[in-house]
């Protein structure tokens, strides 16, 4: 049996007819950059998430960059975040001359450990970027409490977590600014890159709308030095057609995740734990393999089962961040997660037979010793 890590074909089939018609109409209009279709999609996301303002941009990475630009991050400013995340989280900080300051993760949820944040705060600390990893939120209430007491901004990296709920609120709406990604593999994915910034602040929203078009508030009149980061209309059309199906797709992921979690309750791998107060979306279903993770992955590949490692090298050990002076062993939980975690297929189109096949393959690997 073949079980790919991700199969997007069923999503396309669910929207094919209407979507192809929408794309044809867009091609006839010849309006491809921003415009009414992008604004319509921004309004859909505002309605879905409850955010006051949603500003489309070219990618999730640019959403992070724009959010940092909106708070006026300057060279030398420090931003506290996790070393166990996709590169863009810290890369966006460094791109503006900021200093990524890492704090370790909670080993149960893989998200930023709030209890380790205060020790990392200095007079140069400008923001905290908690990451909603693998489709569940970080422990946002204690993080927000720390930030509010210190006058520090919170930028929520929700690029993997659209649709997740924490304490009754949508991922991406919990901090001063929230960032979404519409990369094709995300639960709501386009036909290419795309991103969005969410905020309750009119001031931030207005600023980001200018920053995404080179900081221009009128043609050839630039209020700020911005970037070119516009959501293409064709991506807005695709995402607008997919959004009404998102909750159905998320529920299917939750059912698949529940099947795995029950199946692995007694081993041989450890199922992921959920952040208290969070309803996750399982953009990835990541198990912890106490031993022989890489051998298990090779075994599953031989069985036709797709897997992935998120992330094999924590950011504090990346060559490009060597100047920060971190050493192996400083963030043991992040380093252990990089060595031991493995993502299994969890996408909505999986059949019961495929799920059982994956579970049996994992069990048989460890049973054979």
Q: What's the number of helices? A: 11
Helix and strand element order: HHEHEHEEHEEEEEHEEHHEEHHEH
Average of pLDDT = 97
What does the largest sheet look like? 7 strands, mixed
Radius of gyration (Å): 21 Å
CATH architecture of the largest domain: 3-Layer(aba) Sandwich
Topology overview:
Blueprint: H1 9-29, H2 35-49, E1 53-57, H3 60-70, E2 78-81, H4 88-95, E3 99-102, E4 125-129, H5 140-150, E5 153-157, E6 165-166, E7 169-170, E8 177-181, E9 195-199, H6 202-211, E10 216-218, E11 221-222, H7 233-242, H8 246-263, E12 278-279, E13 285-288, H9 293-302, H10 332-340, E14 341-344, H11 352-367
Parallel strand pairs: 2-3, 2-4, 4-5, 5-8
Antiparallel strand pairs: 1-9, 6-7, 6-12, 8-9, 10-11, 13-14
Helix pairs in contact: 1-7, 2-7, 3-4, 3-6
Descriptive report:
The protein is 38% helix and 14% strand. The chain is globular, with a radius of gyration of 21 Å. Helix 4 links the parallel strand 2 and strand 3. It has eleven helices and 14 strands. The longest helix has 21 residues. The strands form four sheets. The chain has a seven-stranded mixed sheet, with helices on both faces. A three-stranded antiparallel sheet has the order 7-6-12, with no helix packed on it. The protein has two domains: 229 residues, Type I PLP-dependent aspartate aminotransferase-like (Major domain) (Aspartate Aminotransferase, domain 2, 3-Layer(aba) Sandwich), CATH 3.40.640.10; 123 residues, Aspartate Aminotransferase, domain 1, CATH 3.90.1150. With 369 residues, it is an alpha/beta fold. Helix 1 packs across helix 7 and helix 2 packs parallel to helix 7.
